[in-house]
């Protein structure tokens, strides 16, 4: 039995130490087997019991040893068989795993080639299930455990690296936010500085506006003061003019004789043929300043020598100039020639203000001073009712209403101001010699010729082709004219 065990054990290639142990065991077993024969012989031969105590001790000890050895041997046998079954189990386990692997490989191949039917699949699964059953569950569990551990470790590593990434990214974000915060802080401080600047500027503006408003008030006050002053001065000039007129020229009505040379081409006589028309000035209370000015000019003889002539006819007026109008500034000339400069030097060339009286409007055949502001010394005879065009702006506004703006643009151009809207003084009227005036008014202008003027502009177009020379202008004492006088003399 022991031998059999020994051989069986040997067949399973046990280690050399195991073999030696077994050999010792066999030897002991044989020894024990022979022992009962010897002890029987001892008991049967009492002569050998001369040394019973020693031999009994030995025998007892040997027996004890043998029992222990036997026990040890039994234990070893048990261990051996356990070991053996384990080895078998391991072997089988590996065989099962291998077959499972092969079956898997086979299944995989078939699956790849697409030749695995539903039936075969089931069979394969059954086969695998069967094989798995036969693998030692402990080993399977161990393998599973190892695999789980590996997986867990990998997972932990993955999670750890992800955490690291996350932390890095968060750190970056924090850095970015800090940078942004700094930028915002800068922006905010800039804005605060700007706000302060604007507030300071606003304060400065408020101060400036306040100052300007104060200045405007002062100016408005001054303007109204000047306005009052102007009106007072106008009234005084009027009063002084009246005194002047009364002292020098009497109370009027003042009549003026205007003698002109019509230079009639029809008249073949060598004697120049003089024609006359008579003006009567407005009552001295109505237009004192203008009357004083005109009478002074006449009294000084400015209109009775040199270059005065009736030169312009734009249709609505017939204008007389103390200078050849071709040389006037508006025609590019220099206002040269007497008596214009003499008048200017004497300071009686023009009115000091635009005197006007609504009770004496610019109706047909009345006379007015030309040029606004400071009208004079040119004067004109109205050939039509020019009350609206030559009167004060208030009257025009009242009469034209909504059409006023268009009227101003049409009459005076786009950039006209209130100056040109002031009235011309109207201070007398034709009372005799209307036919002479009408004859002069019939004379043609350069603008009416087919060739027109030579590019002299609007005023040039209104120049008479044959100007009418003013021979003399004189104040009549009696209600008679020089023409009448002349004819009387002839008589
Ligand atoms: C002259 O014109 C004005 C203004 O248009 C007008 O009020 C006045 O009646 C006219 N005078 C005559 C005599 O037509």
UniProtKB/TrEMBL annotation:
Residues 1-40 form the signal peptide. Keywords: Coiled coil, Signal. Residues 276-449 form the PPIase cyclophilin-type domain. It comes from the Eukaryota. Residues 160-201 form a coiled coil. This is PPIase cyclophilin-type domain-containing protein. It comes from Cyclotella atomus.
């Amino acid at each position: 039995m022991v031998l059999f065990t020994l051989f069986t054990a040997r067949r399973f290639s046990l280690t050399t130490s195991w073999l030696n142990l077994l050999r010792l065991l066999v030897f002991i077993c044989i020894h024990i087997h022979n022992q009962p024969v010897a002890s029987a012989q001892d008991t049967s031969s009492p002569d050998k019991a001369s040394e019973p105590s020693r031999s009994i001790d030995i025998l007892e000890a040997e027996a004890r040893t043998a029992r222990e050895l036997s026990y040890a041997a039994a234990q070893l046998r048990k261990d051996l068989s356990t070991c053996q079954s384990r080895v078998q189990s391991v072997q089988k386990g590996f065989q099962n795993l291998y077959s499972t692997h092969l079956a898997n490989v086979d299944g995989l191949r078939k699956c790849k080639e697409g030749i695995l039917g539903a039936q075969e699949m089931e069979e394969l699964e059954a086969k695998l299930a069967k094989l798995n059953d036969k693998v030692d569950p402990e080993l399977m569990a161990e393998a599973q455990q190892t695999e789980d551990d590996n997986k867990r470790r990998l997972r932990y590593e993955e999670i750890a690296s992800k955490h690291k990434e996350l932390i890095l990214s968060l750190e970056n974000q924090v850095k970015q936010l800090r940078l942004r915060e700094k930028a915002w802080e800068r922006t905010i401080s800039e804005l605060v500085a700007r706000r302060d600047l604007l507030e300071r500027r606003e304060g400065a503006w408020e101060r400036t506006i306040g100052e300007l408003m104060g200045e405007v008030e002062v100016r408005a006050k001054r303007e109204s003061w000047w306005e009052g002053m102007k009106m007072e001065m106008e009234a005084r000039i009027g009063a002084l003019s009246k005194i002047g007129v009364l002292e020098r020229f009497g109370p009027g009505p003042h009549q003026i004789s205007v003698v002109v040379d019509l230079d009639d081409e029809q008249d073949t006589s060598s004697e120049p043929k003089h024609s006359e028309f008579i003006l009567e000035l407005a009552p001295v209370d109505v237009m004192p300043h203008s009357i004083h000015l005109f009478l002074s000019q006449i009294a000084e003889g400015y209109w009775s020598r040199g270059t005065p002539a009736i030169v312009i006819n734009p249709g609505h007026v017939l204008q007389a100039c103390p200078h050849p109008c071709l040389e006037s500034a508006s025609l590019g000339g220099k206002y040269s020639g007497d008596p214009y400069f003499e008048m200017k030097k004497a300071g009686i060339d023009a009115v000091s203000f635009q005197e006007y009286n609504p009770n004496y409007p610019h109706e047909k055949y009345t006379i007015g001073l030309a040029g606004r502001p400071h009208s004079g010394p040119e004067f004109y005879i109205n050939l039509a009712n020019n009350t609206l065009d030559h009167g004060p702006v208030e009257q025009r506004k009242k009469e034209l209403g909504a059409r006023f703006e268009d009227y101003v643009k049409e009459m005076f151009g786009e950039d006209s101001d209130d100056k040109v809207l002031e009235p011309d003084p109207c201070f007398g009227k034709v009372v005799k010699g209307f036919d002479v005036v009408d004859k002069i008014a019939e004379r043609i202008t350069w603008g009416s010729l087919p060739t027109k003027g030579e590019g002299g502009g609007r005023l040039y177009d209104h120049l008479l082709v044959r100007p009418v020379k003013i021979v003399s202008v004189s104040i009549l004492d009696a209600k008679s004219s020089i023409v009448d006088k002349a004819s009387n003399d002839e008589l």
